[in-house]
Specification:
By secondary structure, the chain is α+β, with helices and mostly antiparallel strands. It contains nine helices and twelve strands. The chain has helices at 83-95, 117-132, 139-147, 193-198, 209-218, 222-225, 234-240, 242-253, 275-287, and strands spanning 5-23, 29-48, 53-60, 100-107, 162-165, 170-173, 181-186, 257-261, 268-272, 289-290, 293-294, 298-305. The strands form two sheets. Strands 1, 2, 3, 4, 5, 6, 7, 8, 9 and 12 form a ten-stranded mixed beta sheet that branches. Helix 1 (83-95) packs parallel to helix 2 and helix 7 packs across helix 8.
Length: 308
Amino acid sequence: MPDAAVSGSAPAKLNLSLAVLERRADGFHGIESLMVGVSLADTLHLRRSANPGIQLSVRFAGPLADRRAHLLAFDVPADATNLVVRAVTMLAAEAGIDPALEIEVVKEIPPGAGLGGGSSDAAAALRAAATLWQLDWPGERLAAIGGRLGSDIPWFFAGGPAIATGRGELIKPVSPLGPLAAVIAMPAVGLSTPAVYQACRPDASRAGAAARLAAALAAGDLAAALPLMHNALEAPARSLCPAVNRLLTDIGRAGGLAPRLTGSGSACFTLCRTLREAQSIAARLTALADAGQPRWPVVAAVQVIERG
């Protein structure tokens, strides 16, 4: 009996390194990035429907449940422009299926953050829809569909830490990096990915740094790893968004080591050896306030996912 409903988790990602190597002839930037998944995640519920088409609803939970916490959360589209709908529509077309689905996305990953929430949701939707429709397709085929929609989506099929190259669609898994945690924080403003990339200066000399960073972390040598955690988009993000400057400073003052921007921002993070250490830093960040209001509306202590 075919399943009537399927649920899936869509984890956020962190760019532990992000080198922008060149501007490509196709208009994209060539990158090299070591990425990991974390325990902060959205949840998707897909159900068969009696009505044709795809009906999407979006609900906010966790730090996004309070409308005062993050106004950008409510900019997530619940129509055909959402990556989830576009991905499932493309899968249905390739499989020759007339879709009749209800999809609910429970959002905990802030949008406009550089945490890959939209891309992760699309990847989770592709997996769940393939299961619901009993498509025995390998992950590589689903990842290729996702790659036609967004450069980040194929990474979410890696199943663990991996280095992304090309425009982000070429994925090379790496050895487990060992137990790590992180603190993620975000200001009350997002950043435009195209604007950040436009202001970035490519640097081909950074090629190979992601593999060295992965090796250092796999060896448990956090001291050697921290100097390799470079994000080429951090300088333009700081210039475009002064709140990123303030947030990185506050993370350092709260005890975070070598805090960095993730993706094109505006979320920032610091790596920790243990979840307990991350929770202590997160508590200090959460306690910061201006005029009685939290200075940073989204602060989370998370576990780095070693294997998907």
